[in-house]
Amino acid sequence: MPSSVAPAPTIDLPNQVLDVYKVAEALDCCTATVRREANRGRLRGTKVGSRWRFRPEDVAAYLDGETPAQAAERHDWDAHIRKVVAAAPPLTPGQISALSALFDVTGGAHGTP
Q1: How far apart are CA 45 and CA 63, in angstroms?
Q2: Contacts of 97 (CB under 8 A, 6+ apart)
Q3: 20-27 and 31-39 are packed helices; what angle lies between their axes, rounded to 10 degrees?
Q4: CA distance linking residue 57 with residue 17, whole number of Å
Q5: Which of 25, 57, 81, 93 has the highest CB neighbour count under 10 A?
Q6: Dihedral (C-alpha) 26, 29, 32, 34: value to the nearest 10 degrees?
Q7: 3-class SS at 110?
Q8: For 88, how many CA atoms within 13 A lie in the half-sphere containing its CB?
């Protein structure tokens, strides 16, 4: 009797990770600066063996002046908001109309920007 073997699950990585060299190029600095900022906790990254790996959003947060803790908190809130939005029922036409009027910046109740 043949045994059925389920295929191995695929791993879906959301973003490509960056190494020290790519981050140094993006920040226009030397690799030692990238390593130093990561070791000090100013630039969020993960060590894989002896090598640093960085997510693009963490490098962007560093450029925006966010601390790793602030970036992690923002990431958690973003994930929570996406979950809430996905679970919400669709808007009714009346709700869409009310929101359109509220956010009308072409000269509605709020005037011209």
Answers
A1: 14
A2: none
A3: 100
A4: 10
A5: 57
A6: -40
A7: coil
A8: 9
CA 43/CA 31 separation, integer angstroms: 13
pLDDT > 70 in the chain, percent? 79
Task: List pLDDT tens digits, range 27-50.
Answer: 999 999 999 999 998 999 999 999
Residues 6 or more apart whose Cβ sits within 8 Å of residue 92: none
Task: Locate 57 and state its tokens.
Answer: 């959003």
Q: pTM of this prediction? A: 0.54
Distance between CA atoms of residues 30 and 21, nearest Å: 8
Q: Are 58 and 43 in contact (CB under 8 A)?
A: yes
Q: Is 31 exposed, middle or buried (0-12, 13-18, 19+ CB in 10 A)?
A: middle
